[in-house]
Design a protein that fits this description.
single chain; two-stranded antiparallel sheet; 200 residues; elongated; alpha+beta
C-alpha cells in the first residue's frame, strides 16, 4: 500500500509505507505514522464509473488527491476517447481474437478429431511427416486436442496438414478483412460495431 507524506495540508510525495519500528522491533501503526505526516493512500475508492468503450478514468497528479483526517484518496478525471484511441482498442481486440482462433483447435475431417491448430502445431506436424518419410514408416501415434492419443497414417497426416493450412489461410483472410474495416472506419460507432462482432 502507498503512503502520502503531507506537509501543511499538501501532499509532497507518495511512496511505500515507512518501515519504522518501535523499541520492541514491531512496525509502528498508522496512528503514529499519521502524527508524523504519513497517510495511507486508497487508489480505487474514488475511481469514477465510466463507459469503458467511450471513456477513460485518468489518474490525477497526487497534488490533486483528496486528503481526509485518516487517509488520502487518489482521484481521477474522466476523458472521452478519440476515434484513434478507440481504433487502437479495436485493433488490440482483433489481435486477441485472432490469437484465440489459433489456440481453439480445428476439427479434422480426416480423422474426426479436434486437433491443435497453432502455427507451432503445424510446424510440428510437418516435422512429424518428415520423420515418417525418413524412417519409411506409415503409421504413428498422434496427440489430439484433448491430449488423447490416436494412431494415424502418413496419408492422413498429409491431409491434416492440408486442412490446417487452409484453416490458417481462412484466419489470415478474416484478419486482413477486419483490419481493412478498422482502417476505413470513420466514426466511433463504426468501430464499436466491429468491436462487438469480435465477441468477449
Amino acid at each position: 500500500m502507498l503512503y502520502a507524506k503531507i506537509r501543511e495540508g499538501k501532499i509532497i510525495k507518495v511512496g511505500n509505507r515507512p518501515n519504522w519500528k518501535d523499541d520492541d522491533g514491531n512496525l509502528v501503526g498508522d496512528k503514529i505514522l499519521r502524527k508524523n505526516g504519513y497517510f495511507p493512500v486508497y487508489m480505487k475508492q474514488k475511481m469514477p464509473k465510466v463507459d469503458e468503450f467511450y471513456q477513460s478514468a485518468i489518474l490525477k497528479q497526487y497534488e490533486e488527491w483528496e486528503i481526509t483526517d485518516d487517509c488520502v484518496y487518489a482521484t481521477y478525471k474522466v476523458e472521452e476517447q478519440s476515434v484513434d484511441q478507440i481504433r487502437n482498442k479495436v485493433e488490440r481486440k482483433l489481435k486477441a481474437y485472432i490469437s484465440k482462433k489459433y489456440r481453439d483447435g480445428l476439427v479434422s475431417n480426416t480423422i474426426n478429431e479436434k486437433i491443435n491448430s497453432s502455427l507451432i502445431d503445424l510446424t510440428k506436424m510437418k516435422n512429424l511427416l518428415d520423420y515418417l518419410n525418413d524412417k519409411n514408416q506409415d503409421i504413428i501415434d498422434f496427440r489430439v486436442f484433448d491430449n488423447s492419443i490416436v494412431s494415424i497414417t502418413k496419408n492422413q497426416l498429409q491431409q491434416m496438414i492440408s486442412e490446417l493450412n487452409e484453416y490458417h489461410i481462412d484466419i489470415l483472410n478474416e484478419k486482413w478483412n477486419i483490419e481493412q474495416r478498422i482502417k476505413e472506419a470513420s466514426t466511433i460507432e463504426d468501430l464499436k460495431t466491429i468491436f462487438e462482432e469480435l465477441g468477449q
